[in-house]
């Protein structure tokens, strides 16, 4: 969820006929890994007492007692320091955006305590969706159309060539497949659909690169 939007924007910013900057791709890949893991650490720290009561989460390191809170804080400090080291390689505007995003990362676990829609905060953090009961699939189809339209608009403004739109069409079909084959009462099915987002991200990235160089 963190990696692909970074890769998309790097590819969009590349000059026409050029591949994305490999240094930026490496920085974003490293930063995504570090900050995604830091977000998981924060989530486990904030939710330790809740995790103890849930079968799916009661074996997490803090909930099970395998790690202490002090050890978790130390590990989080190492993660955030590593993330800062990556962030400082970028320009001042990007550094500012990175620092302000930490508020969303820290706030997300608390949303579970005050709303049935904690994904609203996660959406601000990772840029995705909510749950809408029986209307979930129709609304997600609307989000799919909006996402594809937004990406198409970005491609138009970046003056991408025809291969981008061909690839984007295939990417949209993959996203539509996720939504329309999802079984909302089947966790295994939903986890598989969620995991397939990596292919959607890769397809959009490849489409942008193709639209730049072909």
What's a quick, concise take on this entry?
The chain is built from eleven helices and no strands.
Give an overview in words.
The protein is an all-alpha fold and 214 residues long. The protein has helices at residues 3-13, 22-46, 48-51, 61-64, 69-87, 92-114, 119-126, 136-157, 162-180, 187-195, 197-213. It is 75% helix and 0% strand. Helix 1 (3-13) runs parallel beside helix 11, helix 2 (22-46) runs antiparallel to helix 5 (69-87) and helix 8 runs antiparallel to helix 9. The two termini are 27 Å apart. The model is unreliable at 125-130 (pLDDT under 50).
Order of helices and strands: HHHHHHHHHHH
Low-confidence stretches: 125-130
CATH superfamily heading of the largest domain: UbiA prenyltransferase
Question: Which range best describes the helical content: under 10%, 10-25%, 25-40%, 40-55%, 55-70% or over 70%?
Answer: over 70%
Q: Helix/strand-derived class?
A: mainly alpha
Cofactor: Mg(2+)
Transmembrane segments: 23-46, 67-87
Signal peptide: 1-18
Pfam family, one: UbiA
């Amino acid at each position: 969820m963190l990696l692909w939007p970074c890769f998309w924007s790097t590819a969009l910013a590349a000059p026409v006929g050029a591949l994305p900057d490999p240094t930026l791709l490496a920085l974003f890949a490293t930063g995504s890994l570090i900050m995604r893991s830091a977000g998981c650490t924060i989530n486990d720290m904030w939710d330790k007492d809740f995790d103890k009561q849930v079968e799916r989460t009661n074996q997490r390191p803090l909930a099970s007692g395998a790690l202490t809170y002090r050890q978790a804080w130390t590990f989080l400090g190492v993660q955030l320091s590593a993330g800062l080291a990556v962030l400082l390689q970028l320009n001042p505007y990007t550094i500012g955006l990175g620092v302000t995003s930490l508020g969303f990362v820290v706030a997300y676990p608390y949303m579970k305590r005050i709303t049935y829609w904690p994904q609203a905060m996660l959406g601000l953090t990772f840029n995705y969706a909510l749950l809408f009961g029986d209307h979930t699939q129709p609304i997600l189809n609307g989000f799919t159309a909006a996402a594809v339209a937004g990406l198409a608009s970005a491609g138009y403004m970046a003056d991408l060539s025809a291969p981008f739109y061909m690839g984007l069409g295939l990417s949209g079909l993959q996203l539509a497949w996720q939504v329309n084959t999802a079984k909302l009462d089947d966790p295994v099915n939903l986890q598989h659909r969620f995991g397939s987002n990596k292919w959607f991200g890769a397809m959009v990235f490849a489409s942008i690169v193709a639209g730049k160089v072909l």
